[in-house]
Amino acid sequence: MMDALQAALRVAGSGLAAQSARLRVVSENMANMQSTGASSGADPYQRKTITFSNELDKLSGMELVQVKDIGVDQTPFQVENDPGNPAADKDGNVKLPNVNIITEMTDMREANRSYEADLQVIKQSRDLISMTIDLLKGT
């Protein structure tokens, strides 16, 4: 069984990894928000989604957050009339990615704040461990 400070470090570490993966997915979505299909009538970039799950860590007996799945958003593509676009179909319509910049910015902000909170837990736990070692040295 782990002590409370080591447990806090493991939980916060799993949170850092999960939020880092979330930030990568959001960044990929934002980078591809204008990526149309490679050929006439082809589907454009499809927004990726990420889901998390709690996994029991047998070593510590705690539940840690893990990336469960990276999937794709099934919302329909936007269609825009742009006959000059190489990705346009025979009617001049181009399918645009189902990426919404406001949604992505909101997800990025939330992931960033969660990442910072986990980082703060790690810093506080390290400080408490250092203080404990200093106290033990003094006796």
From TrEMBL:
Domain Flagellar basal-body/hook protein C-terminal: 92-134
GO biological process: bacterial-type flagellum-dependent swarming motility
Location in or out of the cell: Bacterial flagellum basal body
Flagellar basal body rod protein N-terminal domain: residues covered: 9-37
One GO CC term on file: bacterial-type flagellum basal body, rod
Coiled coil: none
Keyword match Phosphoprotein: no
Domain of life of the source: Bacteria
Entry-linked InterPro entries: Flag_bb_rod_N, Flg_bb/hook_C_dom, FlgC
Major subcellular site: other
Alphabetical keyword list: Bacterial flagellum, Cell projection, Cilium, Flagellum
PANTHER family documented for this protein: FLAGELLAR BASAL-BODY ROD PROTEIN FLGC, FLAGELLAR PROTEIN
Family recorded in the similarity comment: Belongs to the flagella basal body rod proteins family.
SUBUNIT field: The basal body constitutes a major portion of the flagellar organelle and consists of four rings (L,P,S, and M) mounted on a central rod. The rod consists of about 26 subunits of FlgG in the distal portion, and FlgB, FlgC and FlgF are thought to build up the proximal portion of the rod with about 6 subunits each.
Protein name: Flagellar basal-body rod protein FlgC
Source species of the chain: Lichenifustis flavocetrariae
Upper lineage: Bacteria, Pseudomonadati, Pseudomonadota, Alphaproteobacteria, Hyphomicrobiales
